[in-house]
Prior knowledge:
CATH topology of the largest domain: Uridine Diphospho-n-acetylenolpyruvylglucosamine Reductase, domain 3
Radius of gyration: 21 Å
CATH architecture of the largest domain: 2-Layer Sandwich
Number of strands: 17
Amino acid sequence: MAGPLKPQDTRSVEAAIQNALADDKTLEIVGHGSKRAIGRAAQWDLTLDLSELSGVTLYEPAELVLSARAGTPLAEIGALVAGENQQLAFEPMDCASIFGGSAPHGTIGGALATNLSGPRRLKAGAARDHFLGFTAVSGRGETFKSGGRVVKNVTGYDLSKLLAGSWGTLAVMTEITIKVSPRPETEESLVVIGLDDATAAQAMALATGSTGEISGAAHVPPAAAARLPLRIAGASAVTALRLEGVRPSIAHRRELLTKLLQVYGDIASLGEAQSHAFWRAIRDVTPFAATATGVDAPLWRISTAPAKGPEVVARIAAMSNAEVLYDWAGGLVWALLPPSDDAGAMLVRDPVAAAGGHATLVRAPASVRAAVAVFEPQDQVLAALTKRVKEGFDPKGILNPGRMYAGV
């Protein structure tokens, strides 16, 4: 395979795709490669490396809008907006730890292409909800734009929503516009120790349904809690609720939630620094980091109704020695399974399907990812629709073919 193609701008991306079309070559699309091991283990002829397509092109703090080239590091954007007391509210995870890396390498293009969303999703929404517009090149070798620089600037199809979560299979985004949010003055977290999964789900549901305005709700069972970067409870389970905002508001909401949840046991509080460290660990799933569990240990990302989370986990745990971590008040479950030839696919997919959810195999050896459906299998109607959308944007199938589904 030839060395990677490293375009400098949209025009050179367009030229690279047109050349690939002319030569009947397929392209792997990467930024800094932090999520390269997620997806089916397909093969491509060339790599289109967007790492040099970097830099913030517009930032208007007063308008809460930012535009950046697709290869711009999230760390660079985060530092820039923090200087204006702002943040990326969708809180994209850093995948380095689960694949054995150390330094953060995620890019804004990768975050939107994969629709990465962290613990604040239950309050702020997913990455796609902060996606205002983009410039991209389709698999036809044609540059196109969608959206703009304000929230209500969509006419016709909302292509930003379509490309978010498409994993680079429809088009190569070269520039992205997102909305940013004011950074809260401070944060703290309330913690209940020692709850079982079902009781923790009840407590989190009670908190999210209250006027406490929590921006994070997570439950970490004992095995995973023992690997948290701060020792909150030793070997006990941890159920945490995050409060963000101005201090008087946090004080009022802390009192409200403490009274509401005191029936579940003693409630401790994490100050700003500890709270931030805890939620960064939840965001990046550090209890299941490759250094702690092994890079070949299968890691599943399960989305389901929050009330169904413990039920799904109970069925999986009954058939395997699984470890789990609950985020989004139980709507997102990270499940670590013992290594096997199929990464425990049948053990996971049947309970998840019964609960009306979906699951993605985030980490497994390439040989397993080549043999097992990595993304949620689609029924015949949805698979046909997916294929038609792919053909509309990339009729010759040159962009990340097979990354999500065989033949697409």
